[in-house]
Structure formats: C-alpha cells, structure tokens
Please model this.
Amino acid sequence: MKVSLGRFATFSLVVLCAAAAGAAVAAAHTSRSAADIRNGGTLTIGLAEEPDALDPTLARTFVGRIVFLSMCEKLYDLDSHLNIVPQLATALPQVSKDKLTYTIKLRKGVKFNDGTAFNAAAVKQTLERDLTLKGSVRASEISPIKTVDAPNTSTVVLHLSSPYSPLTAQLADRAGMILSPKALNAGGTFAQSPVCVGPFMFKDRVAGDHITVVKSPYYYDKAKVHLASIVYRIMTDPSSRTQALRAGDIQVEDRIQSTDVPTLQKNNGVTVPKAVTIGYQGLTINIGNKNGLLKPYSNVGSDIAKSQFIRSAFDAALDRTTINKVVFGGLNQPDCYPIAPVSPWYKPTTKGLACDLHANVDLAKKLVKASGISSPSVNLMLGGTDPVNARLGQVIQSMEAAVGIKVSVTPTEFTTALNRADAGNFDAFAVGWSGRVDPDGNIYGFVATKGTLNDSGYADSKLDYILNGARKSISTKSRDTLYRAAMQIIHRQRPLIYLYHPVNYYGVSKKVAGVQIYGDGLIRAAFAGYTK
Amino acid sequence: MGGFLLRKAGAALIVVFISSVVVFAGVRALPGDPAIALGGENRDPAVVQAIRHTYGLDQPLPVQYVKWVGRALRGDLGLDARQLPVAHTIVTRIPITLELAFLSVLIGSLIGLLAGVIAAVRRGKISDHAATTSALVGLSLPHFWLGLMMIILFAVDLHWLPASGYVSFREHPLANLEHMLMPAVVLGTGLSAVLMRQTRSAMLTSLSADYVRTARAKGLAERSVVGKHALRNSLITVTTVIGLQLGALISGAVITEQIFVIPGFGRLTLEAINQRDYTLLQGVVLVAATGYVVVNLLVDVVYSLLNPRIRVSGATQ
Model:
C-alpha cells in the first residue's frame, strides 16, 4: 500500500528503531505452549481501520488481510521468518524447465466452510475469477497466468505467458485464497457472506462496528483451534483502542500509537509485541514524470531531476538517524533500502552496498558544487497535513539548507498528493509502501519503466532488463544478484531515496496466548486462545 | 392547520431538493480522486478505471446526479466500498444515534431545565451562581476530553462501565444502557448547559410578565405559578432550543461515537469522509440533510401546537 507519511504518522510514533533479528521479530507473542491454552471463549481484536470488501478478489485494505487470515486460507503462507510455506498446497510448486508451468499439489480431504469439497476445480474457478472479474485487484498480481488446468482433484497446473518468479509469493497472499464455488455460484455478493477454507467461518458483519467469525466445524485441523469465535471490532480512534484494551473490552490491539506504548508496557496485564515491518518510507523524486504516470517519460528539468549530483547531495545531506530521533522519537528503523532487515532477502541483496545513516555534509556540498547549479531548490510534497509530516518537512528542510539546497515544503492531503504524484506535479514526495514479501513487490512497480507506481517517471533500460530478469529467474541466488545490481542502480540514480522501515507495536492481553505477529504486520490469532 | 402543514411540507421539499444538489456538488468538490483513494495498495490503473465506472465517475456530472437521485427516490443508495448496501447501513445506524440523542436530550433536559428553573427562581443567590458557573464549565468542556476522562475513570480504573462498544437494546437492555450511559452523559452535558441558560433566561422573562403577576395576585401557590404558568410559556423557547440543539447533538455525536466506538450515524459519516466512499458519503449527507429538514418541520408543528397564534399568523401571510 502506498501510504502517506500521514498514515504512518497517525500511528506514527508507533514504530521502534531497534532492529530485531527476523526470528525475534517474528512470533512476537507465542510464549506459551498449546497445552496452556483452554478451549472456548471469544477473542476481541480492535482493528485500526475498517476492512473493505470481504472478497479476496476485490479486497484492497491491509486490515482486511488480518480478517482473512482467520477464515480464508491460501495455497501458500508465510512462516515466522517470512519464508513461503505450503498451506492449502502440500508443497512449493513444481516449476517446469521453461519456467512457464507451475504444478501445485493440493491437500486432500479439505472442506470449505459450507461443507463442500475443496479441490482443484475450486482453485481453477477462483484463479480464473481473479483474472477476469471486473475490478479484480488480483488480476495484475497474477497476470502472467494464461490458463489454469485441473487434471485431477488434487492437482492444479498454471500455464504462464512469461516466467514470473514472484507468483508463489502472490499465492501466499489474497490471490492464493480459494473461494467456495458454491458460494460464488449462488449469485449474491460474495463479500456479504464470504466462504473459504479456514479455522473460522464468517458469521456476521455490522458495517463500521464489527466482523464476527466463529469456529468452523469443517476445518481440517480443528484440534488446533481453541477459540469459539473472534470479533474484529473497528476502532479507528487509537486512544479508544488503548482504553478498551486496558478496560478489558478487547484482548488484542492493532497498532498502538506511540504515546500509549509506555503506558501499556507498564501495564501488568498486557504485553506489547512489536514488529519491524517489511514496508518503507522514502522520498520519491520526480525525474521524468512530465506528462503523467505511464505516459512517455522525459526529464522534467527541475534541479533535482536534471542533476544526478543534486540527488546524491540531497541524499548525503539527510541524517536518517537524526530524522528518526527528532521526528519519530527514535522509534523507526532507519535504512537505505526498499527491503527490510526482517526479510530473508535483505542480507543477500544488500551485501556490499553502502548505507550511511548519518549525513555527510562535506560530500553533499562537493556534490552540489559539482552539479554546476548555483542555488538548487527542491519542492518537497508531504503526503499529509499532520504535525509529524510537518516536522519531517522542517527537519529535511534544515538538513538540506546546511548543504546549500533550498527546500520548500508543501503539506498536501493524502489523496490529493497521490493525484499530484501521478500527474507529475512535484519535485520530491514523502510517501511510503506497506511492503511485500517478494522483493519484486517493493521495487518493480516503482522504478521499472512500466511500473504502475512509477511516479518518478524513471526509465532505465538496464534497470528494466535486470528487474525483468529477476522476475524470470527461479534461482534464489541469481535473483539475489540481480536485485543487488538493481539496488546499485537505484542508489546511484536515486529515483527513490529510502529513509526508514516502520516498526509497529501491538497490545495483547496476558490472558491470551498464541497471538503471532510477523514482519508483514498482520495479527495471526486463528490458533490463539485463553490461558488456563 | 392543514394549509399550514402543507405550506411547511412544500418548503421542506424544496430545501431537500436544494440539499441534494449541494450534497452532490459538495462531495465532488472534495480534493483528490476518490477512485485513487479507493484504488487500494497498488492503484492498478485497470482497477482505478473499474472503480470510476462502478461509481459512475466516468459520466458527465448531470447524468451522475440524475441517476443518483433516481435511485435514491426508489430507496436505493447503492453499494459502498465494502460492497454493502448503503441504505441498509444507514437504516441500521440511525436508530443508534437517535437512541444516543434521545438519552442525551433526556439527561440534558432533566439537568438543564431543573437547574434553569432553580437559577431563575433563586436569582442572584448561591444556587443561581452555582448553576450558571456549572453551565459555563459544561459548555467549555470538549466532548473528546470529557469522554476520555470518563472512560479512564469509570471503565479503566473502576471497571463500572464498558469503555466502548454498543449492544442493541433488543439484544440486552441492561448492557445497552451500560454502553450508552457515558456517551449520553458526555453529549448531554453540553446540552444541559445550553438548556439551563435558555431556561433561566426565559423563566426570568416569564416571571416578570403580567400574567404571572396576575396569577400570584389571584393567590395561586408559588409552585403552581412557576410550574404551570411561567415554565409552560418558557417551554416554547426551550423546545426551539432543543430542536436546534438536535443538530448540534448529531454533530457532537460524530466525536462521541468515535471515542466510545459506537456504530452510529455520526461515525458512519466520518468513515465515509475518511475513506472517500462517495456512495456512502452522498447517502449519509443526504439523509442527514433530510433529517434536519424533518426535525425543523416537526419543531414548527410543535411550536404551532404550543402557541396557536403562530399558525394563525402563518395562515394570514
């Protein structure tokens, strides 16, 4: 999700800079064993936003994914280290030599939550719906799939039009959620009564208030399910969420605002797990977006667009550590890359690359001088009008002033800012991305010439070649090499300047065990329960 | 009376029509493309285009307006971004806010009227000063602050009441009242302050009027003079204030419902704005505007019942 600083800022100071190792971050709240958990009870989770349509084909929101986790299993899932593991499939896909055929073996004896059989035909129908339904948000995620075959009830074969290695990661998200054909064929609006395979089944939804799911009698591994039901309450006001947790009205709080973190950490009845997320916040630099997104790109001619030296100077002047300290109270994790340290891709793709978290004023001044532009100026558009955004703008402004770059700041309402970014009406834009497990999801869309989020208007045939190569390559090692090469180019040309990775805090009652939070920031509560 | 009602209803219809135009134009005047706002994480151009088509945003504005009004007249306000019918969502939310408003008016009226009458009858005495000062404090307290303080005290520390949420009256009457008590007090506090001041002022005017002096001269008991003569006449002003304050209550409910996580109409409005959900936003604002018109119409009717001269004077105009 392209997220304004404002959105992160809403939960802004929700983040923590200490980078935890992947294993420590993952499974942040799994201290007790299943033996300590009793059966029964209702778990209430206070969500920070309201999910949109409860239809995996159409769903667009982050919180929607939290709800889906309890009632819509996927072909593949993530483990606590963010590795892809089989869920409704029995193994990772077998990929043909030409990388155009994926064979997926499915679990047998699995039932949807309406009692009908889960099988290859259902997978075929769901994937074809994802590809063809008008307004499908999944269509672009799995667009290389040309046809889907179901040679027998437990085997699905995907035929691709071109090699696409991020496909398995896509099938570990909403595109891999398989919907009940009976529910799809019923003719109603699927989102109003969604049916999938999952430990819980949809019970009801009161718009703006709550979504209730109850334990499924059809789930293939129901012995692992302890709770009788889960209620997802929509609580957009962060103070209200925290007070509700303290009062015991809810047992799990989604994304705590920073000011409440110390209070909850002192609360004996609550634990405060945290997760360094796979998202990032950065500055998008408009280099070639002169005519609008995906229109032919040509240099916009601003100081920061026309000179690579100015972009490098702009980056060198930024002190990420100070930004984190002054703007975010030291709660974020400063970094220079689109891939977060919690990702298994981080180390191999950033190996040997330089990332200076402190400003290098001398270097920045030299670069400004080398640019030949006497008094460079940059307009920085902020994706929000809140105080945290304003503070970020001011800090960057003062850092750039120290090296002779004059920054004017334009706080802009988020949607308007997106409009302006797509139209190319900006020099630099402070905006973020919620992150994807596969590196492709954090890079391709933003810097590839055909990337649908390439507000930079950056067009580089060499980078395109590398990124397309990474999409085609199946070998993890070769993908590591290609993404490392891609990041070297991005670092040199700077269509994007990455600032930090957000860290989210959550509140969990000590009466509850088994709630898991991974680096994707989703609350996993399907196998949680109340302690004995 | 019939002619009076007809004229008022006709005027109300014109106001509703104008409101629908303002609502439609106002929603479209909001900054930012709603299709992009609703386009989700990837803002896939195909998805954004599909959203534009679904919401009819790719059609000329007059066509969009006529289609929207046409469907609205048939009770169909469309599907929102959650794929849920807007009309159904609104219909389920309104009773919650009405209940909250009713309880707030009840609490506000009880406190406000009583304090206002006492302050007027005991003008210049300690009780008058106490009531006036309390009203000033009540008016000054922001809803969000008072709400949070009450939550911390009564829910977090004392565990007397739930911090947030809503249970319907039909489902569990006692739980419903438990959940609604704090929000109703928060909303009612402001109203009681306004009512106290208005009641006091109206009562002071009434108490110095000739008919009250006459009533006293006839030897009526003071309780009867105050209750039956002065207060009854003062109620005309107070009723108007309550009618006008209903609007303020619904506005205040936006904050109160947000703090207490009550799925009412106010919170729905806020969600619609935050999510740029055009269909939902148009629906809620249209219903709210119509609600205001209807409330004003009802106040006019009650007014005319309380004071027949109003409808007579209206008839001659």
In short: Residues 1-81+278-317 of chain B form one domain. The first helix of chain B runs from residue 2 to 29.
